[in-house]
Automatic annotation (TrEMBL):
PANTHER family: SANT AND BTB DOMAIN REGULATOR OF CLASS SWITCH RECOMBINATION. Residues 1-69 form the SANT and BTB domain. InterPro entries: SANBR-like (IPR045902), SANBR_BTB (IPR021777), SKP1/BTB/POZ_sf (IPR011333). This is SANT and BTB domain-containing protein. It comes from the Eukaryota.
Amino acid sequence: MAYFAPYLGDDRRVDEIDISVHCDVHIFEWLMEYIHQPAKPPILDAGSVISVLISADFLQMKPLTKHCIEFLRGALAEVLRLPIDLSCVSDNLLGELALHLEADEIERLRDKKDKIASRLYTRKLEAHLADEANTLHRCAFCSRIFTPAQRNWEQCPRAPPLLDFRGNVIAEHVPNRQWDVHRAFPVCELDMCAPATARRSRRPAHSSPDDDL
Ligand SMILES: [Zn+2]
Ligand SMILES: [Zn+2]
């Protein structure tokens, strides 16, 4: 448990130390069992995985955190059916989980109360946008959204045509430097924890795309 490392420095001659723990006794037992046999972790189930995950993350037990995330991937539908509060699962952990899920897996989740789906989508979108190949630009001439690869093959209908070295007429999209994907798609900002209705109402239904500029 890396969490305790700063309290247990090598230079300190401590034979015994008292640790008081505030957590579910069953979860604590689970953790103790795990520590004695990390290669053979005790069984996880939908009812315990969130508590173990949060404890493991807090105690900086990285392999266990990873183990829980991998288990959670397959058990998410069941976890959502249980009355478990998921608001205390950190954004970092959700980001890890989102990396293990395909977008359509998130879409298939039955999460009527939106305990986790919106936050997972947000994290998934963030991860996609962080990939350079998926960087979104907006054309200064035609206002279309394009990726760097798209710019190589898609003609811009409004850009002033230029001649390339072979004498071909080309018209490439030109990125509008003032346009910011995070402002254009507010779902991708840190206000993602706001209820879905509040988020939707931030953007008037009839706003034109130019309102974001
Ligand atoms: Zn264009
Ligand atoms: Zn973002």
